[in-house]
Amino acid sequence: MKLEEYSTIEEKEEFFQNGGIKINHNIDKIFEEIKKYKDEGDSFIFRGCSEAKYRLYNSAQRLYINQELHKQVPSDSISEHYKNFITELIESCKTWNNGVVKRLLENAGINEKNSLAYLSYMQHYGVPTPFLDYSYNPYVALFFAIDNLNYQASDNEIDNYFSFYYTYTKATVFESWKYVFDKNVKQKDVISYEDIDLNEMSIILPEDELYQIINSVNIINQEGLFFYNNHPWYPLERTYKEFVEYFIKERGREKFDELLMHDTISGCYNIHKSLIPAIKLKLNELGINKSYIYPDMNDFRNKVTNDGILNSLTLKK
What we know:
Elements: E1 16-17, E2 22-23, H1 27-38, E3 44-49, H2 59-66, H3 78-107, H4 115-124, E4 131-135, H5 138-146, E5 161-168, H6 172-177, H7 182-188, H8 193-197, E6 201-204, H9 218-222, E7 224-229, H10 236-251, H11 253-258, E8 266-272, H12 276-285, H13 290-293, H14 297-312
Parallel strand pairs: 1-8, 2-8
Antiparallel strand pairs: 3-5, 4-7, 5-8, 6-7
């Protein structure tokens, strides 16, 4: 079973503000727009995607759908089966290598029953999770969109574009999603996956040590956070759209507008891949490159050691 994809850029207009916009030239204009969002501080979060046709599936969904794990149970049991699938991944993380990850969390002062911490660790090391990576830094998101992307022209227009997503987080609903676990954290520092799964969507912030463990210098420069989506097969944009339709039906459009809520999860720019070399050059001028995003610890060892030696030499008479 294959993941659903957008067949045309115009299809994206249903799920994203400006979803049909195509940028084919004017690199300076792209960076001017991005700077406007960056100047808003933490009001926006960003995600880059190497293919405009890709929907916003997280890694757990991709595995669950591609492996057709849903066929293990009747259709009315899929949601529960998917939740159990995530739970089993967490349990496997806890017991891996004689429980070394569990001990790592404990040594960092994190409750070993905090599932968010395990999911964060798993996400960082490529284990499937229901998290989708975002960044507070738009330039980092743009870098991830084009990193290792080799452009080959296609007759299918959408294949010639990658996407840059921006999400406004100051709407009331997003603010509430940031703190859905606070009650649990304050009471007992215990967050089971059942607690997490009670929320269809949420934003997982990096500030609270109870939410994630800083296990790599990469986390610092990447300025990351996570968007959680608990649906077995709806990508994030569709889960949000279903939520909007339900909210308006139950509470009305006036209340929806009063809470500064948005009809779509994100805005979107679809950028032509022929612009990648120029974008890389501009990002490099801003200091956003592989060395920044993925600090080389061998370089760290050599640079610090050599600088220490050099600065200890008596070069002046």
